[in-house]
Specification:
Number of strands of chain B: 0
CATH topology of the largest domain in chain A: MetI-like fold
Order of helices and strands of chain B: HHHHHHHHHH
Order of helices and strands of chain A: HHEEHHHHHHHHHHHHH
Subcellular location (chain B): Cell membrane
Structural class of chain A: mainly alpha
Family (chain B): Belongs to the binding-protein-dependent transport system permease family. CysTW subfamily.
CATH superfamily of the largest domain in chain A: MetI-like
Number of helices of chain A: 15
CATH architecture of the largest domain in chain A: Orthogonal Bundle
Number of helices of chain B: 10
Strand content of chain A: under 5%
CATH superfamily of chain B: MetI-like
InterPro entries (chain B): Bact_Polyamine_Transport, MetI-like, MetI-like_sf
Strand content of chain B: under 5%
Mean pLDDT of chain B: 85
Low-confidence stretches of chain A: 1-14
Oligomer: heterodimer
Distance between the termini of chain B: 33 Å
CATH class of chain B: Mainly Alpha
Number of domains of chain A: 2
Low-confidence stretches of chain B: none
Radius of gyration of chain A: 27 Å
CATH topology of chain B: MetI-like fold
Largest sheet of chain A: 2 strands, antiparallel
Shape of chain A: flat
Shape of chain B: globular
Strand order of the largest sheet of chain A: 1-2
Membrane topology (chain B): Multi-pass membrane protein
GO biological process, one term (chain B): transmembrane transport
Structural class of chain B: mainly alpha
Number of domains of chain B: 1
Helix content of chain A: over 70%
Mean pLDDT of chain A: 85
Largest interface: A-B, 84 and 89 residues
Chain lengths: ~300, ~280
């Protein structure tokens, strides 16, 4: 389209400083816009203020309180932290939490990346891509508790895995470490959280311009070279977002560890929930504060590699 | 089209295994829920019966699961409606930068990634220290919103990032007020994605466990009830309940997907013919 210069537009919009009334109108418009945004976000601020910020503040405050066997009382003492950092158990449990997070991260990333790569680059029709993608995400909308329970017939002493292995003659007696063990915990984590990797990685992969892959192939790159030099660097934001999900979900978990280990294994979340069960809220709060600090540090590190707002 | 490479078949097999890994256990308890009356928690099947489903419907046998189901349903609907409304408003607010928008954005990310037990513990402490009783419809409701709202908002942010502003400008040029523009242009365009937000809102609430644990009070929601059962119920009745809950989730997901499809095809059929007359 060509721009046709008209005398009218030239005359009515001088390039000189804006007239006072026009400037006033612009300022007012910006201010109205800001006011509208505040109004629109006020319910959100209200909900997050009451049910997120206040509870966090409350936990920080209570972490300095004292406790008797039956009740808690306001105080300002560091006993809870002293006890926490003075106990060898704390360090073991925190270490274990990181180990769970690291192992789960490796498996979910490997599986999630492969699945997303297959969907984005090997499935050719969009309809199939969407259908298979939905197939991967549907379990996300069903109950985690039930998905954990459903491992019992597989892993139990007389479960499917043991009977199959026995029948094949690979083992002489049932393996005891399948259910109620760290193995079961990691298996459940991978089972529950791999789709948190699949979704963001698939999302970024779908936005990779296919002509870049073509160009790499024309330039003589092998399939592996295309993967490592083109696709992985471009999918990095998705990988980081998925990692944030998986690491924080595993670090904050308490129920999967409790159920899948048969209460034999512990992570920080279980430490907190045990204190809660014993009504030792100040001690639970102190542990929670340390856990929160750890998680926020992890997120801050990972956010350095990705601008989430740009990736939406 | 070039022929499929060998890696396609390898990756395809991997994908099939992944799907099996994802759905296998669920299907297994589905089969085992039809155990005969003498059957146990694992294979072999000792006959086929509806025994465990029958037990599920006799209320005394397994506690108050129907009450719990009803509460979860109501709470899910409450959370769904709130999530949709607050997310749309938040999405609209974030279309321009405003003072406080960056901290608020990071607060949303915090809400999503904070360990759930902290939300549970914090809200529980506030309620108990201020002498209020925790209840699923008050503290439980708020706790679940901290989990569903981030998903709803992230979806809305993604939607508005892709939103073509020229539609609004056209409406404005034709003399529409801001409210009319919102009502007749913006909301109809983003409508289908609201179905997605609603799906997240309902299902995430319906299945939520960790954030509801200390905030539901004396009346359990269904996931809490099911978790309680895992410690004292050791019969396939657990599988029957699990299968029914999963089926219910599938039905809900199916309904939402169906609504999304219908609204899409309706739009394709009767939607805008803008631009077509000019070519």
């Amino acid at each position: 389209m060509s721009v046709i210069p008209t005398s009218a537009s030239g005359a009515k919009a001088p390039d000189l400083p804006l007239a006072a009334s026009a400037r006033y109108r612009l300022v007012r418009k910006a201010r109205d816009g800001e006011r509208a945004s505040w109004l629109l976000s006020s319910p959100l601020v209200l909900v997050l203020g009451i049910f997120l910020v206040l509870p966090i503040l409350m936990i920080v405050v209570v972490s300095f309180w004292g406790a008797t066997e039956f009740s808690i009382y306001p105080a300002f003492e560091f006993d809870n932290y002293q006890f926490l950092f003075g106990s060898a158990v704390t360090y073991q449990v925190f270490f274990k939490t990181f180990v769970f997070a690291a192992i789960t991260w490796v498996f979910t990333l490997a599986i999630g990346f492969t699945v997303a790569y297959f969907l984005a680059f090997h499935v050719r029709s969009l309809t199939w891509q969407i259908a298979l993608f939905l197939l991967c995400t549907i379990p996300f909308w069903t109950s985690n508790i039930i998905r954990m329970i459903s491992w019992v017939p597989f892993l139990g002493r007389n479960g499917i895995a043991n009977s199959a292995l026995l029948q094949m003659g690979l083992i002489d007696q049932p393996l005891e470490w399948l259910l109620f063990s760290d193995f079961a915990v990691v298996l459940a984590f991978v089972h529950l959280y791999t789709l948190f990797m699949v979704v963001p990685i698939f999302n970024t992969m779908m936005r990779i311009d296919k002509s870049l892959v073509e160009a790499a192939r024309d330039a003589g790159a092998s399939g592996l070279q295309i993967l490592t030099n083109v696709i992985i660097p471009l999918a990095k934001p998705g990988i980081m977002i998925g990692s944030i999900f998986v690491v924080t979900l595993v670090m904050g978990d308490f129920i999967t560890v409790r159920f899948m280990s048969g209460s034999q294994s512990a992570n920080v979340g279980r430490l907190i929930s045990n204190d809660i069960a014993l009504l030792q809220y100040p001690s639970a709060a102190a542990t929670a504060v340390v856990l929160l600090a750890m998680v926020l540090i992890m997120i801050a590190i990972m956010l350095r590699f990705v601008d989430i707002r740009k990736e939406l | 089209m070039e022929p499929r490479s060998r890696s396609f078949y390898l990756l395809g097999a991997f994908f099939a295994l992944f799907i099996l890994f994802l759905y296998g256990p669920t299907i297994t308890i589905g089969i085992l829920s039809f155990q005969g009356p003498g059957g146990g928690l694992t294979f072999p099947m000792r006959g086929v019966s509806l025994n465990w489903y029958r037990e599920l419907f006799q209320q005394q046998a397994v506690g108050d699961i129907w009450g719990a189901f009803f509460r979860s349903l109501v709470l899910g609907l409450m959370v769904m409606v709130t999530t949709v409304v607050v997310s749309v408003m938040g999405g609209l607010a974030f279309r321009r930068k405003f003072r406080g928008s960056t901290p608020l954005f990071y607060l949303i990310i915090t809400s999503l990634t904070i360990p759930s037990i902290l939300v549970s513990l914090g809200i529980g402490l506030i309620f108990s220290q201020s002498g209020l009783d925790v209840h699923w419809a008050t503290s439980g409701f708020g706790a679940q919103l901290t989990w569903t709202l981030p998903f709803g908002l992230l979806i809305m942010f993604a939607v508005f990032n892709r939103f073509d502003k020229s539609y609004e400008e056209a409406a404005r040029d034709l003399g529409a007020t801001p409210w009319q523009t919102l009502q007749h242009v913006v909301l109809p365009i983003i409508g289908p994605s609201l179905i997605g937000v609603a799906l997240f809102g309902f299902t995430l609430s319906y299945d939520e466990f960790a954030r509801t644990l200390l905030t539901a009070g004396s009346y359990n929601t269904l996931p809490l009830e099911i978790f309680g059962m895992t410690t004292n119920v050791t019969s396939p009745v657990l599988y029957a309940l699990g299968t029914m809950t999963t089926l219910f989730s599938f039905i809900i997901i199916g309904v939402f997907l169906l609504i999304a499809r219908i609204s899409q095809s309706r739009r394709a059929a009767m939607g805008s013919d803008a631009g077509k007359g000019l070519v």
